[in-house]
Design goal:
Elements lengths: L16 E4 L16 H11 L4 E6 L6 H10 L9 E3 H14 L6 E4 L2 H9 L5 E2 L9 E4 L7 H17 L4 E4 L20 H14 L5 H5 E3 L10 H5 L6 E5 L2 H4 L8 E5 L4 H11 L4 E4 L5 H9 L2 H22 L14 H27 L3 H17 L11 H16 L7 H15 L1
């Protein structure tokens, strides 16, 4: 047998996790395994037997046990703890809201899998009966009992909330959740959540509520909180997590600080163009099928910048900790895709988007749309909080300054006092030290 010949860039042997999407990635529309699945998984485990295979799915209709059984029948062994569903992301959002004093009255429109997930976390909820006026969280996922009448009930409740100026959240599974039941036997014939949301759009429009999604809707599945569960479940930092999927929503895992993503186009070359347009600056490799997965993963793992991170941290730690002690930066991360050329393009892109967001938020304020401005500013501030923090190449603190600008704007929309002056002073002192 020919011995393995080492390349000039050896694949790192540190432990990683590779998370797969289910539908369209592991399995085709016919329910059969896609080509290259087993060989890709075998390659991952050959790199390091301690590597982790995980599943992240936007379905809230199957329990983890049911998914595990499907995988076993196809000779794929995944621990139950490493199977993450939209139902878990939705439940995590409820728990977060309850910690902030919301979620006292929850109403659920969803399959048994969602209800069981809530029960496992001891979260009380109503289902079946009418939504009460006190309900401040509504949960919606695809299920065969869903009907136009129930959607109208949700739309009417949100309209009441809007008119009264109260707080309420509609937590959905994910826009691309597909029905896993025969829709011809269901009161609602729509086959996916995005179509259900279009029906709600029309109902909310008739109820006179504008921009209801921005005001009230939260997503529990991808690309939202379900991604954030994986570090806890695997014990690995986000930089050692990699996502494999067939949709841009899967590739967006990199915005959650994941180490990278493999995007399978399933032979559709136009989709690679979509990827380049949205995430071209980030560590995502497009492949025609999972047969090319091992090569793509190796490219991600052998990025030379990753091997420099430990040395970079040694002289950046003092600088980073000074921000942390001042309470100004909520933790920091070193992005492995911060090569000089890429970083400069990255900063230019973020600056351009930041300028656009600021202009549109100020326009909303000028139009008297205070709630919409607050929502938009909060979303952008939160997004910047996801951007890699104290990056070694950010010598002048450009990204950090954008973060402070976003925080100031968000606070202004809520009439809160600015809390960034001290941190701006720290940033300026750091710049002066470097120029001395």
């Amino acid at each position: 047998m020919e011995k393995h010949k080492s390349s000039s860039l050896e694949t790192p042997k540190n432990r990683i996790c590779v998370a797969f999407d289910m539908s369209g990635t592991l399995f085709g529309s016919d329910g059969k395994l896609m080509p290259g699945v087993h060989s890709f998984i075998e390659h991952i485990m050959r790199l390091n037997p301690a590597n982790v295979i995980a599943i992240i799915t936007n379905s809230a209709q199957q329990t983890k046990e049911e998914i595990q059984e499907i995988l076993r029948k196809n000779d794929i062994d995944v621990l139950k703890a490493h199977i993450l569903t939209a139902a878990q992301g939705m439940t995590g959002l409820v728990a977060s809201l309850q910690r902030d004093g919301h979620g006292e009255k929850i109403h659920v429109f969803g399959a048994k899998a969602l209800q069981q997930t809530l029960e496992s976390e001891n979260i009380l909820f109503d289902e079946g009966e009418a939504i009460s006026d006190e309900t401040d969280v509504v949960m919606l996922a695809m299920h065969e009992a869903l009907s136009h009448a129930r959607l109208q009930e949700i739309a009417d409740h949100l309209a009441k909330i809007d008119q009264a100026g109260k707080q309420c959240r509609l937590i959905i599974s994910a826009p691309d959740e597909k029905a896993r039941y025969k829709t011809e036997n269901s009161p609602l014939k729509e086959k996916s959540m995005d179509k259900v949301l279009e029906i709600l759009d029309e109902m909310m429009k008739k109820n006179g509520v504008e921009n209801w999604r921005e005001k009230y809707m939260l997503i529990g599945g991808k690309p939202g909180p379900v991604y954030d569960l994986l570090p806890e479940k695997t014990g690995l930092p986000p930089s050692e997590l990699f996502m494999v999927g067939d949709d841009l929503v899967d590739a967006r895992a990199v915005l959650r600080h994941y180490g990278g993503a493999v995007f399978t186009t399933n032979g559709n070359s136009e989709r690679a163009g979509e990827l380049e347009k949205e995430l071209g600056l980030l560590p995502v490799h497009a492949v025609g099928s999972l047969k090319e997965g091992p090569e793509a993963l190796t490219k991600l793992l052998t990025d030379t910048t990753r091997h420099e991170v430990s040395r970079i941290l040694s002289f950046q730690a003092v600088e980073a900790s000074s921000f942390e002690k001042g309470g100004g930066w909520p933790g920091y991360d070193i992005s492995f895709y911060s090569t000089p050329k890429l970083f400069n393009r990255y900063v230019a892109t973020v600056k351009r988007i930041h300028a656009r967001e600021v202009a549109e938020i100020r326009a909303l304020l000028a139009q008297g749309k205070k709630r919409e401005a607050e929502s938009r500013a909060g979303a952008w501030y939160s997004h910047l909080d996801r951007i890699p923090k104290i990056i070694p190449l950010d010598e002048n603190g450009e990204l950090y300054e954008l973060y402070l600008d976003a925080e100031d704007l968000w606070r202004a929309t809520m009439d809160l006092r600015s809390d960034t002056n001290r941190r701006r002073g720290q940033l300026e002192q750091s710049r002066l030290r470097k120029s001395a």
